[in-house]
């Protein structure tokens, strides 16, 4: 059974930075794509960033140039470095492992507020 445990969320002022981490159990991490998604109140969950097993990345237009996804296969961990945060980044952030099937973390709240 794959489990994903996220950490690093919290309250940050506009313009600030946070780094999210997501540690996975099991042995399938390195051969799967990983990603970060977010869901704001009243909105659908959306993909923020994605990284293939080979290291190719995708970023949503709204975060491109501000967020960086990275992975450490030795630690079974995926990171999301978030810079220059604004109020529209406020959401619950979920990490994802794989595509079919998909495994999800429990979510971590990120709040951007003065």
Give me a quick take on this structure.
The chain has strands at residues 4-7, 10-12, 18-24, 34-39, 46-51, 57-59, 67-72, 77-82, 91-97, 103-104, 108-112. By secondary structure, it is an all-beta fold.
What proportion of the residues form beta strands (DSSP E)?
Answer: over 45%
The N- to C-terminal Cα distance equals 40 Å
Which class do the helix and strand fractions yield?
Answer: mainly beta
**Radius of gyration over C-alpha positions, nearest whole angstrom:** 13 Å
* Run of helices and strands: EEEEEEEEEEE
What's the shape? globular
Main β sheet profile = 7 strands, mixed
Low-confidence stretches: none
Mean pLDDT: 96
* Percentage of residues in helical conformation: under 10%
| E-strand count | 11
- Helical stretch count? 0
List the SSEs and their pairings.
Elements: E1 4-7, E2 10-12, E3 18-24, E4 34-39, E5 46-51, E6 57-59, E7 67-72, E8 77-82, E9 91-97, E10 103-104, E11 108-112
Parallel strand pairs: 2-11
Antiparallel strand pairs: 1-3, 3-8, 4-5, 4-9, 5-6, 7-8, 9-10, 9-11
How does this structure look, described?
With 114 residues, the protein is mainly β. 0% of the residues lie in helices and 48% in strands. The protein contains no helices and 11 strands. The chain has strands spanning 4-7, 10-12, 18-24, 34-39, 46-51, 57-59, 67-72, 77-82, 91-97, 103-104, 108-112. Strand 4 (34-39) and strand 5 (46-51) form a beta hairpin.
